Structure formats: C-alpha cells, structure tokens
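Consider this today:
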Amino acid sequence: MAASVRNPSAAKILGTLIAVIAGFFLGKLAWNSFENRPGKLEAEFETAVQNDPTMGPMFQAFRQYFPNDYAALKTEMVAQHRAGATPASLNLLGFNRMAAFRKAHVRELALAPSPELQAFQKSQAALMNGLAAESDKMCAQYTFSAIQPGSTPSPKVQKLLADIGAVQFRAIAAGQKTPAKRQVDTLAPADGEALVTQMKRAGLGDRQLAAFLDGSAARALSETDQCRTGVILTQALDRLPAEQAERVLAVMTAHS
C-alpha cells in the first residue's frame, strides 16, 4: 500500500494559507473609518497592514520580497474600497488575489533551499496543532482542501497563519533565487513507503490511511478524522530523516 502513494495531491495539506490570512485581515479592516481623500487610503493601508502586531510581519515580508505584487494588491484593495466595496467583498478579493499568487509560485516554494523548507515544515506543524486544538472544521479543511473564506480563527491561530504566511514568502523568494536540486513531480516509492510506515506507527487507522492515499475518499470521513489525518501526517514528516522529509514535503507542496 505504501508504494501506492503515487498521487501526492491526494492529501492537500498545504492549502491557500497566504490567501486565508490576507483575506481575513484585509476584509476585517475598519474601512469605513478611512477618509476618501487622495493619498489618505493608501497611507491608511500601509499603517494598518505593516504595523498590525499579528499580521504585520507577514505583510512586511510580502512587501520586502515581492514589492510589485504587494503594490498591486494595495492599489486594487484601495480602488475597490473607494468604489464602495463591502468588507465581505474585500475579504474575498484579498483571498482570491493571494490564492492566485500562491498558485503561481507553489513550485518555487517546493524548491526552496533546505533551511527555508524546513522552516516551512516547522511552521506548518505548529499551525496544524493550533487548528486541531481549536476547530475540527478548519483543521479538516486545511488537511484536505483549504481553509475557506469567511472562517473566523482565534487570535492565536491568526498569529500562526500569519507566521506561516511570512515563512512562505521568504521560502518562495529563496526558491526563486537559489532553487534546490530536488524532484518535485513524483514521489519515490521508498519515500512513500517510509511516510506511510510512520503514519501507521503514529496510530492512523486503515480507513483514514485509505482516504489519505485517495483524496477523493476524504469526504467520507468525519471532520475529526480528517483533522487527525493531517496532524498525524505532520508528525510523520517530523519523524522522517530530514532529507527524506524534505523530498516528501516538496512533492506534496508542488501539487497542493
């Protein structure tokens, strides 16, 4: 069964995280308190997203590593606010724009050098545990698809989401500059076997394992079981030798 791990996208544990936190935060801003004077909204945007104690580091990383994309997002968000967009529509706009950004750069994330990819793995594990402690629903969504727009994570989980967002921006930039020489298209049978062995040792049952190997079967599981699968997957990655964990994570990331 282990060697049948041929579809690395079966468990899309790496969802549109940047999209989630950016959309959640941008839609939550007190837009109606901004004054529609030339230049005022742009300044308010900068103050809000750069100085926020929770989200600030993520937006700072976005601006540092991808200044053109950051400027384009700011311009569109401000223009939509001036046109009368509601917080909900701004939320969705931020979600969609950042989801598109991540999709465009997911291969570069998978090719991030070892230090950046390992930081991503560590941040992902922290988020997975945080979600599992708070919400089976969001945890399940993260494991097999993506946390949906309109979700309301606690401040603690918001911080974890923002942290992994910043980590991803740094990793994508590093993957662009000095891409690692690793395979990201297919999972080697030995790596798949090692991953499944660790997941079994961590207590994943046959039914949950079958859903992991065939992502289309995940909907037959309860949200609790879907969440547990994600938690065990992150634990299994942590128990693999570092280089092997990188290979597995890279393939899964490239297909997320």
